[in-house]
Amino acid sequence: MNDSQDTREKVRPLRETVRDTIRARIFEGHYAPGTRLVERDLATEFHVSRLPVREALRMLRQEGIISDRRGRGAEVSALSSRDVADLFDVRNSLEVLACRLAADRASDKDLRMLDQLLGDAEGFLAKGSLLEAHRCNSDFHDAITRIADNNFLRTALEPLQGRMHWLFRHVSDLPELLQEHRALYLAIASRNPDRAAAQSASHIDKYREQFPLDNHEPDLPQRTPERRNP
Q1: Residue partners of 161: CB distance under 8 A and separation at least 6
Q2: How confident is the model at residue 10 (pLDDT cuts 50, 70, 90)?
Q3: What pTM value is reported for the model?
Q4: What DSSP state is assigned to residue 68?
Q5: CA distance linking residue 127 with residue 129, whole number of Å
Q6: Which residues of 6-30 are buried (b: 16+ CB within 10 A; e: fewer)?
Q7: Residues in a beta bridge with 131
């Protein structure tokens, strides 16, 4: 990340920081689908006024992550079968492109960072820290988008990646997922854009098959929120 990017992130509006915190809690299972998000309570919890919380909730509504239902106010949305299908379709276009560009543009430092993220995920998995291992896997995909260094691509992917991260919290075979990511890393490290794109497409298609669509079950199962240590 260059100095201008660092400066932009340091002066980010408070509403975006609140939005990102709420989004992370949703995708980590802290706020399960159907959980009410009360503006007043969130403002108290985050030690901010209600205005940035209101704006954060508005942005999350636009992303489809929260919705207003049954007069209950804002609540966490669930992903429907159609949502899952659409996410994989878009991911198959944008993320494959990100991997192609990353293979062409990755520096030695970038490759070391990707390798370190995989090593961290493997270490957390060995210790049984599944939440941290999942987080490293999510960071791995986010890092590829940054390495691709295309502002339009990053803008298009950012609102989708959170939902993909939430979806992949349901993947139970973490060792296999890490093997997939290791293969993707090696393809990018080869600096062969065609190889990286093909490996990314294969990775996406493999996990598309693990989320079969059933028109009789419109929503994914709601998972029990994971408790955070105080």
Answers
A1: 138, 141, 142, 145
A2: low
A3: 0.72
A4: E
A5: 6
A6: eeeeeeeeebeebbeebbbbbbbbe
A7: none
